[in-house]
Structures are given as C-alpha cells and as structure tokens.
Amino acid sequence: MKKLFNPSPDLFEESPEDFIRNLSEPVMIFKEGANKTRTRGIVTLLHGNEPSGLRAVHKWLKSGIQPLCNIVCFIPSIPAAIIDPIFKYRVFPGQRDMNRCFLPPYNDEPGKRAEEILQIFSEYQPECIIDVHNTSGHSPDFGVVTFEDSAHEALVSLFTDRMIVTDLRLGALMETSSSKCPVVTIECGGAEDPSADEVANIGLDKYLHQDNVLQLEHGHHLDLYRHPVRLELAPDCVVAYSDSYILGTDLTVLSDVDKFNFGEVERGELIGWLGSKKGIAGVSVKDSQGCDVFDKYFEVKGHQLLTAQALKLFMITTRPDIAIGDCLLYATAESEHDILDT
Ligand SMILES: [Zn+2]
After folding, report:
1. Distance 133 CA to ligand 1 centre (A)
2. What pLDDT digit, counting tens, does each position of 278-332 carry?
3. Cα-flanking dihedrals φ and ψ of residue 323, to 5°?
4. How many other CB atoms are found less than 10 A from the CB of residue 211?
C-alpha cells in the first residue's frame, strides 16, 4: 500500500478520476491536524463503484485545509475503481468483496489489505472511524452501525438522519467497532444520485472540523431501523430486471424496484417473478443466526414474489452482478422502525 504523509495539494490531479488513476494502487494518506494529540480515521472506496466519499476526500485534499485532528485516510479499492469504465467495478475481478474481509483469516489479497488497514489503525489509535459508501441503486442517504449507542448515533448524524442497526456479521469494517473507537458505515445515496456527493461533502466537512463528533446534538432526530435481513439469491441464479417476467430467468426483478428504498411497503407489494425451474429455491432470507426466515418477510403467489408484511426495504440493487454476489435488498419489519429524539 502506498503511504503519503502530509502531501501538498499540488501533488494531486484536478479530477478525482485522474487522482486515483495516477495513484493506481491502494493508498493511505496521513494529514496532520491542528490538534496533533487526536486522530480520526476515514475509509472510502472500499467498493470501487462508490465514488462519493472519494470525491469529497479529493476535494478536501486539493483545498489544503488543515483538519482539526490528525486524519488517517485509506482509499483501498483503487485497482478495481480504475478499470475502464471508471467506477464500474465494486471488486477487482476474481477477488473477494473488500468489505467482507475484515475478519481472519487474512490469506488472500483483499484480506491482507484489510489486515494492513486494521494494523495501521491500531498504531494510530483514532478516536473514531467513518467508512463512506454509495448504494448501487437510487437511494436516500443512511448510516449503518453494529452497536446502538450515542457515539455511533452522533457519527452517523453528521451525514444523515437514518440509521440501521444491524446484527448481521459479514466481515465489514464497521464490525470492528468498539467503545474506544466507534466505526460507522455511511451510505451517501446512490452512486448516480447527484445529492450523494453533497451528503459526502457536508458530512466530511463536519467530521474534519468539529471538535466533538461523538456527542449527538440536542434535539437531533434519527430514524432507526433494527434487525435487517438480506434477500439473497442462489449463486447460479439467472436474474434480470424488467416490467414483466423474462423467459429463462430464475428471478425477474421489477426494473424500478429501487423506488422502494426507505419507502413504506405494504403487505402484498410485488418485487418480481420467480422462474419455474428453481422456484423458491432461487431466493433465501437469513437472519443474524443464519435461520431461514423467508416466510416472515416474503411470500410467493403463482410466480409472483411479494412482501408478506409491511416492510422497509433498503440497499436495493439494480445490478444483477451485485444481487447475486451480495444480495438483492435488505428488509426490516416496519414495526421496528423507531424515531430517536434526544
Ligand atoms: Zn459499499
């Protein structure tokens, strides 16, 4: 991994695209803060197709503005991001998803990179870490945490007012969170949503310059969503997106399915159509214990895949490769949606 210490703004290209093309490999950037006794961490572009955080970091680096605390910043998936067309590839072809690698054993390339990031963070002892992403369909902004407490809420609230508390464990960076160093995931919105870059810019600005980012401002409201489950597809599933069933697919998903992101979906809402070859075997829903809870969330009538109760759906992807390699969507039961008022 390349390491840059207090790089001069002139070192960097004018565009974020040229910036990462020129770097060409994963990079760690250290910038000294006005207060040298404290350090904060930033990770972005763990997924090569999610550029909002990178654009915000690049803009800040070009500005030359000194942060309040020291900043240790990692931009890991540059090799995947710069494959033409730029920002298309979530992972480097043939490799594991970088944000599923923060668990031992660290024996492949993305695993070793994850281990190195954790090792360097443990040397710098940051007081907190943010990991900035985009969703792969249209979506409003939200945060994801693995612990529900005021420090995690405060970090998320720098960027967004929606927070998912997950007990799913997949090997994501945020799962390394602790009371000594809270780690949160920020989803700025869809990679193509113009508002997503703005969310990243405004949030990063607060993160770089506010003295206390671990205490929720009085009167701040957060929408909370707990215990999400993932709608996963079988690895050999043939999936397509359309307005009606496409012959030969195991699942045809409604082409504008991402319109459901964070909207309230009633029972019986159509998600798509299952093929007759695999039928229901093509899809599964597992909870954090690994139990199959498909029937609680979805039902199949004829070939239609429908919601089985009122749900909030989010992180809905409209990319077949991500639907198969990761998951089609996340869901929480609408009754578990809370508004926190402090
Ligand atoms: Zn991501």
Report:
1. 5
2. 999 999 998 888 899 999 999 999 999 999 999 999 999 999 999 999 999 999 9
3. -60, -40
4. 9
Ligand 1 centroid, distance to 120 Cα (angstroms): 21
Give one DSSP letter per residue of 202-255, joined into a string.
HHHHHHHH-S--SSPPTT-EEEEEES-EEEEE-TT--EEEESSPPTT-SEEEET
* Euclidean distance between CA atoms 306 and 296, whole angstroms: 11
H/E run at residue 102: none
Give the whole-angstrom CA distance, residue 75 versus residue 27.
5
Ligand 1 centroid vs 19 CA: distance in angstroms?
A: 20
Compute, in angstroms, the gap from residue 331 CA to the centroid of ligand 1.
17
Span from the CA of 9 to the centroid of ligand 1 (angstroms): 27
Q: How far is the CA of 3 from the centre of ligand 1 (A)?
A: 23
Do the Cβ atoms of 270 and 304 come closer than 8 Å? yes
List, in order of start, the domains of the chain with CATH numbers: 2-226 (3.40.630.10), 229-337 (no CATH)
Reduced 3-state DSSP string for 266-311: CCCCEEEEECCCCHHHHEEEECCCCCECHHHHEEEECCEEEECCCE
342 pLDDT higher than 60: no
Does this model's pTM top 0.85?
Answer: yes
The amino acid present at 255, given as its one-letter code, is: S
Instruction: Tell how far the Cα of 188 is from the centroid of ligand 1, in angstroms.
Output: 10
User: Where would I find the H helices in the chain?
Assistant: 16-23, 52-63, 78-81, 109-124, 150-157, 194-209, 294-297, 320-325
Q: Phi/psi of residue 339, each to 5°?
A: -110, 125
Cα-to-centroid distance, 174 and ligand 1 (Å): 12
Find the 277 Cα to ligand 1 centroid distance in Å: 32
Tokens representing residue 204 in the block:
């990063």
Tell me the Ramachandran region of residue 276: left when phi exceeds 0, alpha when psi lies from -120 to 50, beta otherwise: alpha
Q: From ligand 1's centre to the CA of 46, what distance in Å?
A: 7
